[in-house]
Amino acid sequence: MKAERHGLWRRRGGYVRPTTAEEHSDGSVSFTTHQDLEPTLDQNKLMLNEYGDKLTPGKQTHGHRVASIPFNIWEKWMLETGGAIQKDNKLLAKYLNDPDNKYFRTTPTRV
Description:
- This protein has 2 domains: 1-34, no CATH class; 36-111, no CATH class.
- It has helices at residues 38-49, 71-81, 89-97, and strands at residues 4-12, 15-23, 29-33.
- The chain is α+β, with helices and mostly antiparallel strands.
- It contains 3 helices and 3 strands, in the order βββααα.
């Protein structure tokens, strides 16, 4: 028996993301959340290009944005690390400094 799909909308952190609910013949349900990454990646690229020199005042201290991570990616990382990435800054830096994740960074520096 083929699974039935239903479209839903899920609100998370002020953003609405489409979610698909799939009902299986055994009575279980799977939810898949979809997110268009392009707006976040485009904004990150813009911020990266506008970053300027590392020595610009205000960029040598704590408190400036170094990355913007889409919700679906963050949720994936949370599952992969059992939630540890939320509390472990070194683990988060490891993920952000990974060349595969460079598109989430908004500065040319390592985290």
